[in-house]
Design goal:
DUF8176 domain-containing protein, transmembrane, transmembrane helix, DUF8176, Nuclear Transport Factor 2, Chain: A
Length: about 270
């Protein structure tokens, strides 16, 4: 016979079971983006430039954040991917509109042919043909030059040419020329310092491929303290889209050459 429990006595409770590793602090690592920043950020340059994360700051975070901060191709990769996605969307919309217009034109031609062949026997004059629209005239040379008129002053250098290898503005112009005109990843990376920690060349090639072929560019370079340069790039895509973005580029003289040691996105 089972023993009866006195109702007035409190019921025994089971001990609380804490989940395994309860209390351990395991913050979720941020999701890694493909290439978020160029080489390294500098604390002393403008208030709108982010500092590259110090290794002591991680405290268990995913090391992919450090890799993203060290990647000098990051701003161009992210911006190029965003513009490429927008361009593909517009191209799809244009293609759909063109297909709809072509279908409507085909229906009109078929209807006109049926009317001509099934009409009365009285000869009728053929409808006047619409002359084709003249092709759009190419922009005049002076109009092209006025958009990116080359100029060199102590305060600013503007141009879209191949630049040179003896001055910091010339090397920056050469970098953008290799990116937009030559579309050559090796030529781009040849302008980086040997000790620069960079992503594989395939990442640069992918970012260049994301820029529509035929995109025109205009570069503005302004000096900042300590070998830094504020670089603005204006783009004009073949479909008429325009984009602008800025970077802060650091250069240094190495073995008689001017090389790029850091590139960070300028914010603000």
């Amino acid at each position: 016979m089972s023993e009866r429990r006195d109702p007035s006595m409190p019921r025994a409770t089971m001990p609380a079971l804490s989940p395994e590793n309860a209390g351990a602090d395991h913050p979720a690592s941020p999701e890694a983006a493909p290439w978020s920043r160029w080489l390294e950020t500098d604390d002393g340059v403008r208030g709108d430039v982010r500092r590259a994360p110090d290794p002591d700051d991680y405290d268990g975070e995913d090391l992919s954040s450090d890799l993203r901060a060290e990647d000098p191709m990051a701003p161009l990769v992210e911006e190029a991917r965003r513009r490429s996605l927008a361009t593909r969307r517009r191209q799809r919309m244009i293609m759909r509109s063109a297909l709809a217009a072509a279908a409507l034109a085909l229906v009109t031609v078929v209807a006109a042919g049926a009317w001509l062949f099934t009409g009365n026997e009285t000869p009728t004059a053929a409808p006047p043909s619409t002359p084709p629209e003249p092709p759009a005239a190419a922009p005049a040379a002076d109009a092209t030059d006025s958009w990116c008129q080359p100029s060199v002053t102590p305060e600013r250098v503007v141009g879209a040419g191949a630049g040179d290898a003896t001055t910091a503005p010339g090397v920056i112009l050469r970098l953008e020329y290799a990116w937009y005109v030559q579309r050559d990843p090796a030529a781009v990376r040849a302008l980086l310092a040997p000790d620069a920690r960079v992503a594989p060349e395939s990442a640069t090639r992918e970012a260049i491929a994301a820029v529509p072929a035929g995109t025109r560019h205009c570069v503005t370079v302004s000096p900042l303290p300590a070998g830094r340069w504020l670089v603005g790039v204006d783009e004009r895509h073949p479909d008429g889209e325009q984009a602008s973005w800025q970077q802060i580029v650091t250069t240094a003289h190495r073995d008689g050459r001017v090389l790029i040691t850091a590139i960070v996105a300028a914010e603000g």
